[in-house]
Q: What sequence folds into this?
């Protein structure tokens, strides 16, 4: 098992939790100092109001009224405990129970003597009266310090809770990420070990890992198809080329044994034709492999499928007519697909060639282009003898030719190439019945752009 300290999943999760804890610590610090400053401002406002009341009393009734007020207020107690002191011009305390040295004018943080606790901190506001005496109003800082302690304790507890929850969440998230990533790693390891059928498990929740799994599985499916295609090509080529190569060798041997003359020239000519036939076979196989490889997608453009098929039918109609068959068609306008015009044209031509090659004279061939759901279909149908149901899937395979057509020209690659072109366009090729009467229908279904 991989060391968790070397795991990127755990590092990401723990870094996220550490960043969250740091943000809470910074927020707590800012709140602590902001609250302390706000409470101190309120404290200063309260001192200013209390001092202003005494100054008004002095101006209204003189120093005696100030002394009486100080004595009266000195016995009160409340949420905020004020202390009062009156110093004469020489700095002697002449009134009030606030036991401290005369502070400077204005606001000041001082130390006074509390009768119970001894030396204690206070906040004072000192004002000069017109007769030169100084009026001191102070408030004990203990209440503010207690509030600060409460705020600090709350945020310390909250920070500790965030750290604990963040660590637990980081371990859970890190484990979850590792498990999901290990599923991909296990799939890759299984495929490298030779199990090409292995796929990435998808949870069905539709998250990013599921999307990655779906894309990887699609890639593996395509790789699997390409490998299967390669194996099939190798087997089919080995099987189907055995007889043509044997005939070619036999013909060359006969040409070599024959004396100079027309017979030898004819044998050599047959061997050349057989070589050309083999070269055409290899060219067809390579073309199918190129289409299956998917490089053609880089040349895809927007194509009006109906217009493309109409042009092909117009060009192909004379050749069909010369073969003793008829060609008719209909198309629905505005069916736009993304694809290669060259490949789609080749697919339709192959279907038309197939319909001509395997039907008798007098057959009617119909080409229909129509919308079907979110896609578009090209149907090439005929009223010829058709193909048995059990052979309809088989004739799309490479090198497959039905027994009754073995003597005909070709290598059984036409429909396989059409199927490859359909796959390259994310479409399908379906071979079915033409309708209520006899005949065959080849349906090329393509997604609309």
A:
């Amino acid at each position: 098992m991989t060391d968790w300290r070397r795991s990127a999943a755990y590092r990401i999760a723990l870094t996220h939790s550490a960043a969250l804890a740091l943000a809470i610590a910074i927020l707590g610090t800012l709140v602590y100092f902001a609250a302390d400053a706000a409470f101190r401002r309120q404290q200063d406002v309260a001192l200013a109001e209390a001092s202003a009341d005494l100054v008004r009393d002095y101006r209204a009734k003189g120093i005696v009224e100030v002394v009486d007020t100080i004595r009266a207020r000195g016995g009160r107690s409340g949420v905020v405990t004020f202390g009062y002191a009156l110093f004469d011009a020489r700095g002697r305390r002449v009134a009030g129970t606030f036991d401290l040295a005369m502070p400077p004018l204005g606001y000041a943080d001082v130390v006074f003597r509390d009768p119970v606790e001894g030396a204690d901190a206070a906040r004072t506001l000192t004002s000069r009266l017109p007769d030169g005496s100084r009026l001191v109003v102070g408030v004990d800082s203990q209440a503010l310090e207690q509030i600060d302690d409460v705020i600090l304790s709350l945020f310390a507890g909250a920070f500790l809770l965030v750290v604990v929850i963040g660590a637990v969440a980081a371990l859970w998230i890190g484990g979850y990420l590792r498990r999901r990533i290990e599923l991909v790693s296990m799939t890759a390891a299984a495929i490298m070990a030779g199990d090409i059928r292995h796929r990435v498990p998808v949870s069905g929740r539709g998250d990013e890992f599921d999307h990655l799994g779906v894309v990887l599985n699609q890639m593996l499916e395509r790789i699997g198809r390409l490998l299967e295609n390669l194996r099939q090509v190798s087997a089919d080529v080995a099987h189907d080329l055995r007889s043509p190569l044997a005939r070619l060798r036999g013909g060359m041997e006969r040409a070599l044994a024959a004396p100079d003359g027309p017979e030898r020239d004819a044998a050599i000519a047959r061997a050349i034709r057989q070589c050309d036939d083999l070269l055409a076979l290899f060219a067809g196989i390579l073309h199918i492999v190129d289409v299956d490889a998917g490089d053609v997608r880089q040349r895809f453009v927007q194509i009006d499928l109906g217009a493309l098929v109409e042009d092909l039918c117009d060009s192909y109609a004379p050749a069909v007519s010369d073969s003793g068959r008829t060609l008719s068609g209909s198309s629905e306008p505005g069916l736009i697909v993304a694809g290669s015009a060259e490949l789609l044209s080749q697919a339709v031509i192959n279907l038309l060639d197939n319909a001509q090659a395997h039907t008798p004279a007098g057959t009617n061939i119909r080409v229909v282009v129509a919308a079907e759901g979110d896609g578009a279909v090209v149907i090439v149908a005929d009223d010829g003898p058709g193909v048995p149901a059990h052979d309809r899937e088989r004739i799309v395979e490479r090198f497959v030719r039905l027994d009754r057509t073995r003597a005909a020209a070709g290598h059984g690659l036409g429909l396989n190439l059409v199927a490859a072109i359909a796959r390259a366009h994310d479409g399908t090729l379906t071979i079915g019945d033409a309708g209520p009467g006899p005949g065959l229908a080849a349906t090329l279904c393509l997604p609309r752009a």
In short: Residues 403-408 have pLDDT under 50 and may be disordered. The chain has four domains: 1-198, 199-238, 241-293, 297-447.
